[in-house]
Amino acid sequence: MSAAAVERPHRDRPHGDRPLIAEANRLMDRLPGYRVEIIGGQILVSPPPDGPHAEALTGLMVPFLSAGLHGSGSRVLQGIGLWLPTGVEDYAIPDLSLVDADYQDHCIENNCYDPVCFRMVVEVTSSNHRADLRTKVAAYAEAKIPVYVVVDRRHQRLHVLQDPAGDTYENHRVHAPGETVTLPDSIGAEVALDVAEILEAGRAKH
Question: How would you classify the pairing of strands 96-100 and 74-78?
């Protein structure tokens, strides 16, 4: 894919020599179900997602599976680590990733994989919507992830970002309910997303 391989740290380096990763792992042990990431040298902690978040994520997976993207050439995976070039210990854990089938050959450190094998990442917002729409835009762009999709449950919009350049994406389109979004061919198959259907699945009913 278009992402460039990042420098690999020493696999045998103990986490004691990686203070942020060591602290992040301690937090994960103390907070089961929370997502702990390091972006820009800062630890980000997100609470466990609610049920509608999970429903939106499951609904998103269906068109990718139907298009045959979870097969011999690529895999559709939830919650795998993405090693980032933004800092010596930086990594993110996207809600959903489309990766090359040989992604396991690209493990770098701390169960995180080289961005070179990622075709697309997806985030479904919770209380962390600002991180998904700002912090992670820059991080994923710098990692040269070709396509970044954000399901913005707060504002009921779906964002599709393409063409990473520096710390941003040159193409950022925002879609509203009623639209059908066809994702770029670079992901490996034709996939269309029904914006209303995805957003409705993620809507919390009070």
Answer: antiparallel
| pLDDT surpassing 80 at residue 12 | no
DSSP string, 5-54: PPPPPPTT--GGGSHHHHHHHHHHHHSTT-EEEEETTEEEEEPPP-HHHH
pTM above threshold 0.85:
yes
Strand partners, 151: 124, 158
Cα distance between residue 150 and residue 36, in whole Å: 19
Q: For residue 139, what is the DSSP state?
A: H
For residue 69, the one-letter residue type is L
CA distance 115 to 133: 19
> DSSP labels for 82-126?
EE-TTSTT-EE--SEEEEETTGGGGEEETTEE-GGGEEEEEEE-S
Q: 162 pairs with which residues across the strands?
A: 147, 171
- Rounded distance between C-alpha atoms, residue 206 and residue 109, angstroms: 41
| Residue 39 phi, psi dihedral angles, 5° rounding | -135, 125
Which of 6-15, 88-97, 107-116 shows the lowest per-residue confidence on average (mean pLDDT)? 6-15
At 149-186, the pLDDT tens digits run 999 999 999 999 999 999 999 999 999 999 999 999 99
